[in-house]
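Escalation from tier 1.

The customer reports that the assembly of two entities below gives different structure tokens on two consecutive runs. Tier 1 could not reproduce it. I'm attaching the input and our single run for tier 2 to review.
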Amino acid sequence: MIVQQIIEKAMQKAQGAQATLLTQETSSVDFENDRLKSAESSQRTQINVKVIVDGKVGNSSTTDPRDVDGVVNRALEAAEFGSPAHFELPDPQQLQEVKTFDPALLPLQKPEMIHLGQKMMDMIKAYNPEILAGAGVNKEIYRFEYANSKGASYSAEHTGFNIGAGGQLTRGTDILFAGHGVGQKKRQVDEEDIATRAIEYFRMAEKIVPVDSGEMPVIFTPGGLIALLLSLGLAVDGKNVYLGASPLRDKLGQQIADPRLSIVDDPFIEFGPNTSAFDNEGVARKVTPLIEKGVLKNFIYDLDTAGRVQTHPTGHGTTRQLTNLVIAPGETRYEDMLRGIENGLLVHEFLGLGQGNPINGEFSVNIFLGYKIEHGKVVGRVKDVMLAGNAFDAIKNIAAISQEREWISGPFAWFNGLFPYVQIGKLSVTAK
Amino acid sequence: MRDRLSEAIKSHDVEFVDIRIEDKTNSWVNFRGPDLDTIGSARTVGGIVRALWKGGWGYATFNDIDDLPRRVKEACETAKLVGRDKTYFAPTEPVVDSIKASMVKDFRNVPLAEKKALMEEYNRIMLGYHEKIQTASVRYADTFKTVWYANSDGTYIEEEKPDVNIIVIATGRDGDIVQNGFEMGGGPEGYQTIENFHENARTAAKRAVELLSAPPVRGGTYSVITDHEMTGVFTHEAFGHLSESDFVYENPQMQEIMVLGKRFGSDGLNIVDNGALDGGLGTHKYDYEGVPTRKNYLIKDGVLVGRLHSRETAAKMNEQLTGNARAVHFQHPPLVRMTNTYIEGGSAKLEDMIKDIKLGVYALKEVGGQTAMEMFTFSAGYGYMIRDGQIAELVRDVVLTGNVFDTLKNIDMIGDDVGFTPNGPGGCGKGSQHPLRVGLGGPHIRIQNCVVGGQQ
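Tier 1 run:
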């Protein structure tokens, strides 16, 4: 195995070494502007190496499996000037059994993927022929291997399936984009449901309605919840905690949100979009509660940051990326949540998210796709409206969480997870 | 390589085929907080074959470049699965060319240890600047890429693309308030572009500290003046993306909105995309379809006169080629993308723009922007209130938003001081392709009735 060869070669000079190998085959089909536009086959190889020499770390990578000498030498060179190793490579660990490979995806070929895309396109066109429809279907099969000089050696086979549809509707100078998609590791998918949800976003936007500036209750859709989760994700990142940049750095064990809010990071969900048993540092993954009944429970650490603050890595890899986020359902039916609002907004997508100062919780975004709620009903789409607030204040000020939850996943999702609708008491809205 | 590519292309049985191969070596030095965060280097080799058949594209992307004829076959078979209509693809003269990098100081000859030592100096300057500086980071990256391009027209281009960039970020904290100041630099000209960054590091730290005591701007509608960076991001985000013909060429309603000859702004407004600009971050001699780049007017004297094309969109719309088919790397086919986009200089002086504003916002230093066709939003690193014709207090969290058509019409003064955004780690994103190097710039401009986000 290449990863073993790399370890052996590196250990001639290093006191510690790890290597990962990703090999991936992808096929995809893409519909744009009402027509099948392109299809693609892709092959990928990626090798990453980390070495520890005299207590210092060096990294390197290559896409060429014959470049074992080169990649090892570059990592050794980097280690001469590298940062001090605040960690030891992990010993072999017992891994959780997880479902990441669905054989049903193996026989799926491009003609059938084209058929799936066409079916969703046809549904959208049947709803409104004026919509310029698009769709994408993508299937991937990959193998990930890890080995280190402590004798840990793992490999995992994964499948992936991403499917989505949407479109663009132009009326005068008004341009509306909407769509829906899912990303998961299994073949079984309800493509009609995807198209139906995409259509629903268009249907609710048939009318454009005015909004007055002011403070009002706001419901975040499961997709729209990213506006709040983005700041939370940055603030629980162990590196930001270690550097003192996280506003939650000294709030572990404290009430930081409404007691109805519980969020857990679960890498073991069957065929979940980011399900896996080990990370790219050879750390066994585990379930990590982030917020339990409003109380902050954990930060996310990789080997390096865990070493620096003398705690344990959480199995989220070198980038400390969250896996499958699961928010506990609430007690309110979505319909009742709507019904309780006299004058407010339902927000789904934003422009400008992550600009400014997201780690502080502050957001000031343009509502790219959002709707006005009047007398308990969605009455139309809002435009040229800014939503501003603070995510950490907002999660203390939750008015309701829905019973219904939806998977937010796929290549364009900031975070993958199972999310409810969340109603925030009041937020500031600026309309032109 | 030329023989390998032409040999592989020979085997095709579709209407058009091209191959792009890249070999990239990059290295990086990152500090975060007082310590070195990561240091390393990487090599990436790979390619893409595109095949065109009856209006449909087949792509094959790969890291393993050994068996090119097989990849060509794969792309051709895929194209035949897709193609069902008529092909539109503009012809262009075949070219054979080789473009060599010319760096004043080649970063490949600078030892990693020296790069690390210099970045550590910048980092120390920020950390030691003030007691309220909580943390700092320095990200240095250099890339040397060779791209080989060949197509079935007989074009063969070999191009070396060096790039070095740096960003220094100082983070200040006062209680629960955290503010960043940052500076970016670098360029294709070599290592010397990032060698004297000490003053920039101080500036970043100074701004972070000052922003701690600056209030957030109050949301509302203001007269807004933008500096060259903010003008650049506005031009790029708000208008530039609408000029990318792949949004237009198969969309009759968009064609109505973007009909050539339509007035978008005042007489003094000229917007340009220029891939042939000397020293621009988005400058290339040829695009990734072998088309030479050039200066393209998008708006001239306030009127829409042009748009950006690939060979497919130009043919479909029966317009001239512009050389704007670009891709971030070999894992993607080219899309219609901007190169260096800017508003040309006018005649106004900054002080004249400010002097008759009763209440306004002066927005500086772009942090980023995003667009959804006619809606846009972009953020400034910092800003100043303008009160009674004078620049007043520093404000933070300045986010401008609006509708491009209204906003272009609301530009009432155009400065005479064109400048460009410095190099840095970012770039433009479109679809899944990010970050693409683009040049952004323009003069100071004044926009009336511009919405600034924020709490009221």
